Amino acid sequence: MIPGDGIGKEAVPEGLRVLGAGSAHAPLTRDIGGTAGTADLGRAIAEALA
């Protein structure tokens, strides 16, 4: 989550709070830039359309 990306100052802290609470019940992986999704699911959309 990136503060200042247009979702509002209230959303980022609350989103982090929810992720923190969820990580107590299930393992979470921090993925910067979406690399885990493409590793699991295939190529990125931009790559697939090229």
Question: Could you characterize the architecture of this molecule?
Answer:
The protein is 48% helix and 0% strand. The longest helix is centred in the first third of the chain and has 12 residues, at 11-22. It is mostly helical and 50 residues long. It is flat, with a radius of gyration of 14 Å. The two termini are 28 Å apart. The chain has 3 helices and no strands. The chain has one domain (11-49).
Short summary:
Helices cover 48% and strands 0% of the residues.
Characterize the overall form.
flat
The helical percent reads: 40-55%
Proportion of residues in extended strands? under 5%
What number of structural domains do the residues give? 1
What class would the helix/strand composition place it in?
A: mainly alpha
Rg (CA only): 14 Å
**First-residue to last-residue Cα separation:** 28 Å
Q: Output mean pLDDT.
A: 72
Number of strand elements: 0
Low-confidence stretches: none
Tally of DSSP helical segments: 3
Biggest sheet statistics:
none
Protein name: 3-isopropylmalate dehydrogenase
Organism: Ralstonia syzygii R24
List the helices and strands and how they pair.
Elements: H1 11-22, H2 35-41, H3 45-49
Protein name: 3-isopropylmalate dehydrogenase
Organism: Ralstonia syzygii R24
What features would you highlight for this structure?
mainly alpha; 3-isopropylmalate dehydrogenase; 48% helix; 50 residues
